[in-house]
From TrEMBL:
Enzyme class: isomerase
The organism of origin for this protein: Amycolatopsis samaneae
Record-given protein name: Alanine racemase
E.C. designation(s): 5.1.1.1
Similarity remark: Belongs to the alanine racemase family.
Domain Alanine racemase C-terminal residues, every copy: 240-368
Tree of life domain: Bacteria
Catalytic activity: L-alanine = D-alanine
Family annotation (Pfam families): Ala_racemase_C (PF00842), Ala_racemase_N (PF01168)
Role summary: Catalyzes the interconversion of L-alanine and D-alanine. May also act on other amino acids.
Residue positions where N6-(pyridoxal phosphate)lysine is found in the record: K38
Any one GO molecular-function label of the UniProt entry: alanine racemase activity
Active site, renumbered: K38, Y261
The encoding gene: alr
Length: 372
């Protein structure tokens, strides 16, 4: 069989996803586990990840938008689905018909859900969100009593949960975590006083791994599902994504020869260059020019010169790689290979952004361990 050399490819290891979900389920202190698959599962592919997560012990799936949740329903996912952020003109009726749990952060949002439920002729499952200090989505505390009372009085609303989101859980010991936990407890008690009996969920990946007291009834790991740890806990999480390309051309150049636009790199010795056919159009940030290594031929090798739109050049010294040789731009880090976290540190961002950015038209996606 002729080998298939990728121009630009992300390889998603679904067995790594299963391993991570099983580990997180074990750490959840008996709470149910919601795997967050928003943004196409952080660039990993929502449907394959959803199936793998459910196989490994997750019982809920979390999506940002109703469209994301409905896409999973249409693909045959029957597990509990939760969506929490949509535009003001979204029609909640298809979500109610598809048995998707919805979030409400305001009276207006609650009323739009109730109106949709009346049109459908079914009760809507709703999670009321309290803003405990992230100051993003969520009901401000002064308006919370009005929201829970309105929800309790609406016959077509079934209040399934009370929830919030932590701002600094990835900084263990940050004072805001305890403050948010206190505000969350107060909000929950107010909901109970209004006659509601909701479940509680607050913990993201970081809180799942560091604050078992905040696990409550349900935990919502996102990034840890994909093997990237937001806190230095030493857990055996396995990165699921590898970004790879291959060598399409090699050439020998003499000392003093410069490479790529602007001639920002000049060979200080005779060397072999390898051309790799992916660049910033494929997710390799141009700002990493001069700071990027790849894994090629069993060792790290530096990228020579600027990253271009469609290609980059690797300095291979006296080694001449074969055409089609694998080039790993980031992955699990085996043997010292580059990782998404390394990219993030160099870019001044977080690895969430790195992996989520890999959903691009020219980057093909391939799965390992797909049991569907």
């Amino acid at each position: 069989m002729t080998p298939s050399f990728p121009r630009a490819e992300v390889v998603i290891d679904l067995d790594a996803v299963r391993h991570n979900v099983a580990l997180l389920t074990e750490r959840a202190s008996g709470a149910a586990l919601m795997t967050v698959v928003k943004a196409d599962a952080y660039g990993h592919g929502a449907l394959p990840v959803a199936r793998a997560a459910l196989e490994a012990g997750a019982t809920w799936l979390g999506a940002c938008s109703l469209d994301e949740a409905l896409e999973l329903r249409r693909a045959g996912i029957t597990a509990r689905l939760f969506s929490w952020l949509d535009m003001p003109d979204v029609d909640f009726a298809p979500g109610i018909e598809a048995d998707v749990d919805l979030a409400a952060s305001s009276i207006g949002e609650l009323r739009r859900i109730a109106d949709a439920a009346r049109r459908v002729g079914a009760r809507a499952r709703v999670h009321l969100k309290i803003d405990t200090g992230l100051s993003r989505n969520g009901c401000p505390p002064p308006l919370w009593a009005e929201l829970v009372e309105a929800a309790a009085a609406e016959p077509l609303i079934e209040v399934v949960g009370v929830w919030s989101h932590l701002a600094c859980a990835d900084e263990p010991g940050h004072a805001s975590v305890d403050l948010q936990a206190k505000r969350f407890d107060e909000a929950y008690e107010a909901a109970r006083a209004a006659g509601l009996d909701p479940m509680r969920h607050l913990a993201n990946s970081a809180a799942l791994l560091t604050r078992p007291d905040l696990h409550f009834d349900l935990v919502r790991p996102g990034i840890a599902t994909y093997g990237l740890n937001p806190v230095p806990t030493g857990e055996d999480l396995r990165p699921a994504m590898t970004f790879r390309s291959s060598v399409v051309l090699t050439k020998r150049v003499p000392a003093g020869e410069s490479v790529s636009y602007g001639h920002s790199w000049t060979a200080d010795r005779d060397t072999t260059l390898a051309l790799v056919p992916c660049g910033y159009a494929d997710g390799v940030p141009r700002v990493l020019s001069g700071r990027l290594d790849v894994w090629l031929g069993g060792r790290r090798r530096p990228v020579a010169g600027r990253v271009c739109m469609d290609q980059l050049v690797v300095d291979c010294g006296d080694t001449e790689p074969e055409l089609g040789a694998e080039v790993v731009l980031f992955g699990a880090g085996a043997g010292g290979a580059p990782t998404a976290r390394e990219w993030a540190d160099k870019l001044g961002t977080i690895d969430y952004e790195v992996v989520t950015s890999m959903y691009r038209p020219r980057v093909r996606r391939r799965y390992l361990g797909d049991r569907s």
